[in-house]
Amino acid sequence: MAENQAFGVSTAAVPQGGSKCFDDDGRLKRTGNVWTASAHIITAIIGSGVLSLPWATAQLGWIAGPLAMFLFAVVTYYTSLFLSACYRSGDPVSGKRNYTYMDAVEANFGGFNVKLCGFVQYLSLFGIAIGSTIASAISMMAIKRSNCFHASGGKDPCPINSNPYMIAFGIVEIILSQIPDFDQLWWLSIVAAVMSFTYSTIGLGLGVSRVAETGEIKGNLTGISSGTATQSQKVWRNFQALGDIAFAYSYSMILIEIQDTIRSPPSEGKTMKKATLVSVTVTTLFYMLCGCAGYAAFGDMSPPNLLTGFYTPYWVIDIANAAIVIHLVGAYQVYCQPIFAFVEKYASEKFPANKFITKEIEIPIPGFRPYKFNLFRLVWRAVFVIVTTLISMLLPFFNDVVGLLGAIGFWPLAVYYPVEMYILQKKIPKWSSRWVRFQILSVACLIISIAAAIGSVAGVLIDLKSYKPFTTSF
């Protein structure tokens, strides 16, 4: 029997060349293409992070802000190409498949690196689940607040507690988390990708309309002025802004898992290169427009979440925030599938005779393939969602959490491991000019990640001084 290492599913082995129903590794034929892979990537990239970009641009200014977004895009694109080349070990067409990020690290390094990579990857994914829950609650609260603001004519500040909205989001995720694996998420990713374009376009339009209405392009070349923040606050915020931008481009941690859904021929690497180019180009264009339009509209007063700065036209704000919630519902699932798959695979290997873990009950669904119900999946995934929801209720600080997540995951997952694995794959000689360039890139990104982490931790500590868990309203 050949085992699906990504999701712990066993299928009958077939000859190396594959067949009409099976691929060369014995798994059912993969059906993904450039567009489904692009949808997964866009769902992962254009998330809640786009809403913090005007704030990040405000901290850095008109020169450093757009430049930072462009540089992060370039780095993300090239390191994603390095990582996609590691999907197969050896020959890019017929080499052994690495189903997950950890499989790729194990094939190239093994030992301690696998455990370290797994820890960072799953910690980042866990954190993104928390960030998605916080962002969705903020958007749902924004809908309530805009309607309240409209009804009171702007007289009521409309303080709202975020906890009920986080709980509602968690309930929806408990239900959707029962979708077994990535292959069955394609429709949710497409819906989420459409929603991401919807709210990004609305945010961009509102920023442009605000500039047109006032006839003034706000902001300055060096970021927030001394009157808005102290010198030390400006330093911390600059670091945090870099973390926000890094988070906005984070998807490397699930790149291999997305690539494992792609059919071949052509080779999965070629298809993934096209999908990466399409996705990073589109998202960078949106990021530049949204970040700059929001900064031009609000200047030093750019809000942590772009859409919270607008109250009219309230029905447009409601549509945009509803689109964010729908997108985050899908993004949560895309990011959490690798965690779900890892835990379920480990449990089934550790306790192969335990019926609670391994037994699947087929439930027929007219017009679709039967749904395989598993009791362990139901319980464990529900517990996971509940835990992320509770942590979100304890730390509902959108910008600080976003910056910290970007800092934690960017260097090791988006730069270090892709670069080092690519060096091994291509047998690049140590101390050659190419090797030196790669090391300079890696060290520079490490320094940025450390600075971003420091700035975000400082932000969390400041927020905690005035926050009371489960009671503070926003």
UniProtKB/TrEMBL annotation:
Membrane topology: Multi-pass membrane protein
Residue ranges occupied by any Amino acid transporter transmembrane domain in the UniProt entry: 31-461
Protein family according to the UniProt entry: Belongs to the amino acid/polyamine transporter 2 family. Amino acid/auxin permease (AAAP) (TC 2.A.18.2) subfamily. Belongs to the amino acid/polyamine transporter 2 family. Amino acid/auxin permease (AAAP) (TC 2.A.18.1) subfamily.
Gene Ontology cellular component annotations, sorted alphabetically: endomembrane system; plasma membrane
GO biological process: one example: amino acid transport
Principal location class: membrane
Protein name per its UniProtKB record: Amino acid permease 3-like
Keywords: Amino-acid transport, Auxin signaling pathway, Cell membrane, Membrane, Symport, Transmembrane, Transmembrane helix, Transport
Molecular function GO terms recorded: symporter activity
Alphabetical list of PANTHER family matching this protein: OS05G0424000 PROTEIN-RELATED
Cellular compartment(s): Cell membrane; Endomembrane system
Function text: Carrier protein involved in proton-driven auxin influx. Mediates the formation of auxin gradient from developing leaves (site of auxin biosynthesis) to tips by contributing to the loading of auxin in vascular tissues and facilitating acropetal (base to tip) auxin transport within inner tissues of the root apex, and basipetal (tip to base) auxin transport within outer tissues of the root apex. May be involved in lateral roots and nodules formation.
Xref: InterPro entries: AA_transpt_TM
Residues passing through the membrane, by range: 34-53, 60-79, 119-143, 185-208, 277-298, 314-335, 378-395, 401-419, 440-462
Gene name for this UniProt entry: LOC111489750
Presence of keyword Cell membrane: yes
Organism: Cucurbita maxima
Keyword Phosphoprotein applies: no
